[in-house]
Structures are given as structure tokens and as C-alpha cells.
Amino acid sequence: MVRVVNSDTVRASTWVMAAGTAIDAMAMTTADDAAAQEFARVVERHRPQIFRFLLSSTRDVDLAETLTQECFLKAHRNWGSFRGESSAMTWLMRIAINLQKDHWRNRRMQFWRTTRTNSVDLDEASEWLPSGESSVEQQLLARERVKQVWSAVKGLSERQRTVFLLRYVEEQELSEIAAATGLSEGTVKAHLSRAVARVRLELGGRR
Amino acid sequence: MNKFEDDAEFAQALKNFKSSVHAWSDAAYTRPRTVKREVRVRSWRLAAGWALGCVLVAGSVSGGLLERNHRAELARIAAQQRAAEQMRQLQLQEQAKITDEDLLAGVDSAVSRQVPSAMEPLAQMAEDEIK
């Protein structure tokens, strides 16, 4: 079958195709803009919490800032693949935990590159105590207790520390901790129990 | 809540710990950033470290090369001196040899004289008788 098409028809179909492509492009741009705005909101909402977790894990402000930036950079790259099966916070926390693990692993392997750590000591970490209405003696006692907790946290294994901080600093539920760490809830409970026992021992309480 | 949190003191310690971490984090999160300065300092230190390392390596290499050249030069001079000494010894030996031969020749020429043939006196007598 021979199909005869005049030039006007070709021009019109070309215009329609171009218009369609433009509309698709505009739709994609709108979708991209929406995704970017959504991601910006996620960053704004969760960045302080991710930073806080990394700071308490590393006790190093510069390192926590760097890892937080890496966390959101990685999240931005993979934002398209985030399907919302867990909350954005859990997803981001999982990225942060993995980045932290990678950092310590690389540091162990490349110990000769930089042997100096910027982690603050326990005294400095314990300085940060909001001044309530309590007396000076009570504040000193509270500071001493905080220092003891820091000391116990420092002695915990990596998993125990992560679970402890997520539970008692970030106040996450066991199911959220399990999702963020990739462990079962039973394992999370076991790690948490050991961590708490260690902290209690450091504080001089019963085991 | 687990059984440990029943303990009021322990719960208070954990609460203080949480408040402490939050306060520290809030202060660190809102502090003015000095990243550029730190990067500059680090890059300056890195550059200084590299420069020092390069100088040390260059010094070691050039020192080694100089030492090697110096030793080669000394060996060359020693070889030249040995060759010159050998040549001098040969010349002395040669000279000594020539002098001995000349001396012997001189002695020969000095002590030798014309010796008459063994039958000359008899021949002389025979000539005289014939005359």
C-alpha cells in the first residue's frame, strides 16, 4: 500500500510531536522539581537528628558534619529508588550507620594516614548540660553522671553503642532501630540489654 | 519500658545524658563554619609536607650521586697514578738497561788493544832471515 503524505501533513505531525516532547519534558521537569522540593524538606527536617546521632557516635564535630553531608549526598543520589517502605528517617539513619561503619573500617585499614583523632574527651563531652533550675551541687553531680555514661558508651561495641544511642538519645522504638540497623528486634533487644547493663555497672548500680 | 528504667537515678542519668547530647549537638550544629580556613591550613600543611619530602628526596638522591661521582673520580685518579707509576718504572728499567750496555761497551773499548796474530813473530823472523 502506498501512502501519500503531503508536506503540510508532515509539518503538522512534526509540530505535534515536538509539542508532545515539550509537554513530556515539562512534566518531567515538574516531577523533578517536586522531587527536589520533597528532598529539600526531608533534609531540613532530618538533618539535625542525623548530625546528632553521628556526633554522639563519633564525638567529633568535624567528622559528624562530614558524614552528615555524605549521608545526604548519598540519599540525594538514591532518592529516586526510595520507595517509602520505611520512613525517610529510618532510611537516612541506615545510610548514616553504614557510612559510619565504612569510615571506621577505612580508618582501621589506613591507620597510618592519620593517627590523630579529633574526638573530644569525656570531660568536654560532659560539659554540655542544659542549666536547669537545680543547684550547683546537683549540676556537678549530673555532669559526673553524664561523664560516667559517656565512659560506658565509649567502652561499648559498635553495635551496642549504635543501639543504645538510637534508643536513649534519639528515642527510637525497637522496630525502628531494627529497621535502621538491619538487625532483628530480638538481636536489638539483646544488644540493648548488654549496653544498659554496662552503663549501669559504670554508674555503680546493680547489673 | 524495661526494668532498668524503674530505677529513678538511672533514668535521670540517661535523661541528663540525652539532654547533654542534644545541647552539644544544637551548639555544634549552629556554630559558625570554618571549613575554608581548615582546608587552607590543611592544604598548606600538605604542601609544606610535600615540599619538605621532595627536598629530602632530592637531597638524598643528589648526595648519593655526588658521592658516587666522587668515588668514581678518586678511582680514576688512582688508576691514572698507578699507570703513571708503572710507566715510570718501565722507563727506569729501560734506562738502567741502556746504561749497563753502554758501560760495558765503553769498558770493552777502553781495555781492548790490537793484538798481533799468533804467528807474527815467527813470520817476522823468517822475513829477516831471507833478507
Task: Give the topology, please.
The complex is a heterodimer of chains A (207) and B (131).
Chain A: H1 7-58, H2 61-77, H3 88-109, H4 122-126, H5 136-154, H6 158-168, H7 174-181, H8 185-203
Chain B: H1 8-29, H2 35-111, H3 120-130
Provide a descriptive summary of the structure in words.
Chain A folds into two domains: 7-119, Orthogonal Bundle (Rna Polymerase Sigma Factor, Chain: A); 120-207, Orthogonal Bundle (Arc Repressor Mutant, subunit A). Residues 1-5 of chain A have low confidence and may be disordered. By secondary structure, chain A is mainly alpha-helical. Chain A has helices at 7-58, 61-77, 88-109, 122-126, 136-154, 158-168, 174-181, 185-203. In chain A, helix 3 (88-109) crosses helix 7. Chain A contains eight helices and no strands. The mean pLDDT of chain B is 83. Chain B has 131 residues and is mainly α. The longest helix of chain B is centred in the middle third of the chain and has 77 residues, at 35-111. Chain B has a domain at 51-100. The A-B interface holds A 48, 51-52, 55-56, 61-62, 64, 125-130, 142, 145-146, 148-150, 168-169, 171, 193, 196, 199-200, 203, 205 and B 2, 4, 7, 9-10, 12-14, 16-29, 31, 38.
